[in-house]
Amino acid sequence: MNWNRPDIWIIAGYLVLMFGLSLWHRRFSSSNLENFFLGGRKIPGWLNGISYTAALVSPDAATGYGGLGIVTGAFISWWYLSRFGLALFIGGVLFGVFWRKLNLFTSLEFYGLRFPQRAASAMRIWIAVRTSLIAMPAWTGITLLAAYKILGPAFGLTKLETIYLIVPISFLFVFFSGYKGVVISNLIQMCIFFIGTIVLAVLTQMYFGGPAAMTAALQHAFGATHPEMLQMAPPATHDVFPFTAAVAWLFGQSIGYGGDAAPMGGAMEGQRILSTRTPSEALTMYVVTAVSMFVLLLLVTLPSISAALLWPELRAAGADRELVYGYLMKTMLPSWAMGLLVAAMMAATMSTVGDNLNFGSQVLVSDIYRRWFVRHASERHYMWMGKVAMALILSLAILVVFQVRIITNVAIVMLQLSCAELPANWAQWWWWRFNGPARIAASFGGAGIFCLVVLAPRLLGFMGFSSAAHFALPWWWQALLVMGLTTLLWVTVALLTPPDPEKLLRDFYARARPLGYWKPFRLGSKEGSQAGIVKPIFRGLLIAIIGFAAVCLLIQGLTAGWFGWYTSCISDLVLAVVLFIVFKRMSRSFLAYLESRTAQAANGNNPALPLFAGEEESVRS
Fold first, then answer.
1. Residues contacting 470, CB < 8 A, separation 6+
2. How many CB atoms lie within 10 A of CB 138?
3. Residue 95 and residue 493: Cα distance in Å, rounded?
4. Are 273 and 92 in contact, with CB atoms under 8 Å apart?
5. d(Cα 374, Cα 371) in Å, to the nearest integer?
6. Residues of the chain with pLDDT > 70: what percent?
7. What sections of the protein cross the membrane (predicted)?
8. pLDDT of 613 strictly over 50
9. Higher pLDDT, 606 or 163
10. Percentages (nearest 5) of helix, strand, coil residues in the chain
């Protein structure tokens, strides 16, 4: 390792700051479970948004997305825009208010309100196990692996040395500080991450002589063989990310999003919603997440595209392209800047690891240990068991570090599994006839279909069956096929089995006042048309699409600026601002309607509510 003195002081100062913050919040977090896991439900929406970005974006963004950037090109932004963009706005506009109004401790408690006891218990066990013992170790493991792929090229660290450097302070931080300390530290860590990535991006531009010179060099090197590198949209055919894959991401991750606040493919979304101060701030959390996350991902992917001029061998099949960001750091940064960016990567790693451990332990203790094993212990006992659960999750994550090579492969598999049941997550909110057996079919049947479509061809190929290659579809077609077959399964089960008990459904509707097809349980004096029932949903989807379009134009405009296409840059940014203003005004009106609707449910006041512009809600006596 070649450690320079400025690097050492910067990194040491960061570690001391983080440990001091953890001790500062120790007293607050140790007072009760709600403070330790939800920050006392007093976290501002914007701060939760930055924290959610910290949970979603870690060094695996620099390695995974950076590696994708070097083999794709200017259209790399569509990998994460299609994956997260529309989904986040749908979750914020159509579901954030409802989740916060339920005032749950963990989002998994929702199943006890919505489904009969046997189905609810099965769902809580399944989701708690897959979240705390599968998803959180997997995402934590690839975060630590990503840190190694950056610190390895930059300083020559091994995997074990990287773990020794990052894991102890990450564990001690979340051990002492709880959720509030994690959220506040996330703000500091993201500021460091933003500064570090901006420094590297600026130095990369300077290295190539500015946007025009860099773009000309890319055109000269790849214009004849790979012209798609300077295209703003995914090409129709591409080995890594064709247009079809973008469509698969968009539909596979957006349809059904928001109906489950603890998606396997996402991070600790429910924890962010339930800890906000007010229901309306849940939408603020989503919007801040979308903007901050996409700008940060842009900062790590754009320099990686330019790196193809320096290391074209990383574009070859079989090359470990995820080392590119570490190479950039070593090549571009002076000593003081190297220490800053290493601290930034450590900050991002610690924020994600801390979030994963805090959320995973909350679910493991509340939905498994406390519910099924020790029901009547003291809060102090449960807090200590939560800290034991953190150690267990971290141990499993370290196993992942030594078993995985390519980070994006894990992300794709995890998201394929989660998208199987995503449409069912909308159905459990919007269709009263969606019952317990259908919920079980969506979750367990979806997992079985995933194994059949995704894992079986791989297993057959591993066993030496040459015909297995005929069944191994590209991952984007696999995702859509798994989703389609699972949806067909749970719709069939719902229609062929009896509905859930009437009292259960009536109590849930009275408490949550969900949108959609709940006509037998609507409160009021008139029975309305189906158009009146679904109009709020379509209006919410329209508002979400406008927000998604605004953030897409923002990212496309900044991308155009990176390559020196200033006319496109300015026009995209101006249009993005206009759409953000439209989104803000429409969403404010829509959320006011949703909050008044759920407030009347909470107060036991049942008269019909106005929808929009004088329209009355359709209800049934």
1. none
2. 21
3. 25
4. no
5. 7
6. 79
7. 6-24, 78-99, 127-150, 162-179, 191-208, 283-311, 332-353, 388-415, 436-455, 475-496, 537-557, 563-583
8. no
9. 163
10. 80, 0, 20
Measuring CA to CA, how many Å separate 398 from each of 268, 440, 525, 605?
A: 20, 32, 59, 52
* Structure-token pair, residue 501: 């008990």
- What would the two tokens of residue 264 be? 């396997």
Count CB neighbours of 217 within 10 A: 15
Contact between residue 108 and residue 262 where contact means Cβ atoms under 8 Å apart: yes
How distant, in Å, are the alpha carbons of 242, 434, 468 from that of 236?
5, 38, 26
Report pLDDT for 620: 32
What is the Cα gyration radius of the chain?
24
| C-alpha distances out from residue 575 to 72, 293, 559, 560, 569, Å | 26, 20, 15, 14, 10
Cα distance between residue 151 and residue 417, in whole Å: 31
Report the Cα–Cα distance between both ends of the chain, in Å, rounded: 74
Q: Which two tokens stand for residue 427?
A: 């159905």
Q: How many helices (H) and strands (E) does the chain have?
A: 29, 0
Amino acid symbol at 457: P
Contacts of 585 (CB under 8 A, 6+ apart): none
Q: What angle do CA 184, 188, 190 make, to 5 degrees?
A: 110
517, β-bridge pairs:
431
Structure-token pair, residue 16: 């001391």
Exposed, middle or buried by CB within 10 Å (0-12, 13-18, 19+), for 225?
exposed
- CA 263 – CA 390 distance, rounded (Å): 19
pLDDT tens readout for residues 238-249: 888 889 888 888
Q: Residues 516, 431: contact at Cβ < 8 Å? A: yes
Query: How many whole angstroms separate alpha carbon 518 and alpha carbon 507?
Result: 12
349: nearest Cα among 1, 53, 57 = 57
Phi, psi (degrees; rounded to nearest 5) at 192 = -65, -40
Give the mean model confidence (pLDDT) for residues 231-255: 86
pLDDT at 337 over 60: yes
Copy the structure tokens of residue 507. 């109590």
**DSSP string spanning 410-455?**
HHHHHHHHHHTTHHHHHHHHHBTT--HHHHHIIIIIHHHHHIIIII
* Cα–Cα distance for residue pair 115/117, rounded to 1 Å: 6
Cα–Cα distance between 103 and 110 in angstroms, integer?
Answer: 10
Give the Cα separation of 423 and 257 in Å (integer): 8
d(CA 150, CA 145): 9
Say which residue the tokens 């002589």 belong to.
209
Q: Are 261 and 107 in contact (CB under 8 A)?
A: yes
